[in-house]
Amino acid sequence: MSAYALAHLRHVVPHPDVLEYMEKIQGTLDPFFGRFIVHGGAIEVREGTWPGNLVLIEFPDMARARSWYESPAYQQILSLRTRHIEADTILVEGVEPGHDSATMAFELRKAGWLTTP
Q1: CA gap 30, 5 in Å, rounded
Q2: CATH 3.40.50.1110 fits 3-110, yes or no
Q3: Which of 26, 28, 60, 102 is deepest in the core (most CB within 10 A)?
Q4: Which pLDDT band, with edges at 50, 70 and 90, does 79 fall under?
Q5: The whole model's pTM is what?
């Protein structure tokens, strides 16, 4: 099952370190088969607010996403970004092919997920 690294970049300060990070990140992703899905594209907010930019990187599975983030190569460049960009970063599992939210709702109901007020 695919997994994703998602970064919500809220406050970006232009700095040469950020460009160096951008130049080096792909080399850290390649050994783990990571690929950019979204990298700062236009955002159209439909609900709530979204201050900042979005980066979404796909990996074949959570083990590779974790291994990438914890790799010496990525840890070596990470501070180039974090010193200059305020962000939240998460790793999240995707869903299996054919995922159906109605089936998920059924399973949640069956498991007693809802409580009666």
Answers
A1: 14
A2: no
A3: 28
A4: very high
A5: 0.90
